[in-house]
Amino acid sequence: MLEGKGLVEDTDMSLKMQIQAMSFASQALDLYDVLDYKSIAAHIKKEFDKEYGNGWQCVVGSNFGCFFTHKKGSFIYFTLETLNFLIFKASSSPPSSP
């Protein structure tokens, strides 16, 4: 297990889910090479699918942009070690216009 703490940049997840997200990320970093983004992301997605039902998405890397719609209460963006992690559950409804 990694000793370093994650830094949450943005989230609307419960504290319990935030802790699990960082724990799953830490597990993945213990299992896979730090540059194996695809395997790291797949591990985290599978763990969230098992724990909270299917439909989770995970993006891992050091430089990426994104725009997406997510289910309320299912979004977290954090940094752990040298990587950024974006985890969310997809939403089928488009965002409302301002």
Name the helix and strand elements from N-terminus to C-terminus, one letter apiece. EHHEEE
Give the tally of β-strands: 4
Overall mean pLDDT stands at: 88
Strand content: 15-25%
- State the assembly state of the protein chains: single chain
- Indicate the low-confidence ranges by residue numbers: none
Rg result: 13 Å
How are the strands of the biggest sheet laid out side by side? 1-3-4-2
Tally of DSSP helical segments: 2
Q: Level of helix content?
A: 25-40%
Q: What overall geometry do the principal axes of the alpha carbons give?
A: globular
Structural class: alpha+beta
Sheet bearing the most strands, described? 4 strands, antiparallel
End-to-end distance: 43 Å
Structure characterization notes:
The protein is of the alpha+beta class. The protein is 34% helix and 23% strand. Strands 1-3-4-2 form a 4-stranded antiparallel sheet, covered by helices on one side. Helix 1 (15-31) runs antiparallel to helix 2. The radius of gyration is 13 Å and the shape is globular.
Topology of helices and strands:
Blueprint: E1 7-11, H1 15-31, H2 37-52, E2 56-61, E3 76-80, E4 83-89
Antiparallel strand pairs: 1-3, 2-4, 3-4
Summarize the structure.
The chain is of the alpha+beta class and 98 residues long.
Features:
98 residues; 2 helices; 4 strands
